[in-house]
Please model this.
Amino acid sequence: MSDKHLSSQFDNELNGVSSRVMELGGLVESQIGLAIFALSQFSTESANQVIEAEARVNAMEIDIDRELSSIIARRQPTARDLRLLIAISKTTANLERAGDEAEKIARMVKSIIESGSARAIPSSDLRVAAELASGLLRKALDGFARLDTSVALTILKEDDLIDQEFDGFVRKLITYMMEDPRTISASLDLLFVAKAIERIGDHAKNIAEFIIYIVKGEDVRHTPMAQIESTVN
Model:
């Protein structure tokens, strides 16, 4: 992920911690996929698998942070190396939080199932947003592995699509609850699911911003799109 150093051991350490981040990303992707399946099929078993995976995600985050602290203390990196390690730390935190959102989805699915309203609410309408969010996270991990700023830029632009899906779904859900007040409780659970999906997209967007930070040395958070495009290009 970075230029070669005089110390091959330093290169190995950087590659090793980067690989751990990809491993964590794969686990979180799996969590999200299971959560989406649990939502689409109202599967208690899949929801439980998502919840059970959370402990492993948390443990991996702690291990990666410990490894990063050790590398920084021993190598005292500067310039791009330091940016890379900082971005890895922030990416790890965002992946763990994306896993938290997957767990929230799973818990809300279980709540909806237990309420007996599973088939009476428009959960299928969330599938497009869920697939968009999952796809964005996958792109973010791929872009991070290759430090591809063009992929990062694409992610930043596509995140708006998830926001649009979320806004449209909220309007539809409000109308649905007004028409049938008996579904209000389950519909509110579904609203939390929609928000969790939106947040997964936000975490993918954050990772995209870290890619640009590593490569270009510019912090593009809270920056207008035109300025980000100028930085990348």
Notes: The domain at 8-232 is CATH 1.20.58.220 (Methane Monooxygenase Hydroxylase; Chain G, domain 1). Residues 79-115 form the longest helix (37 residues). The chain has one domain: 8-232.
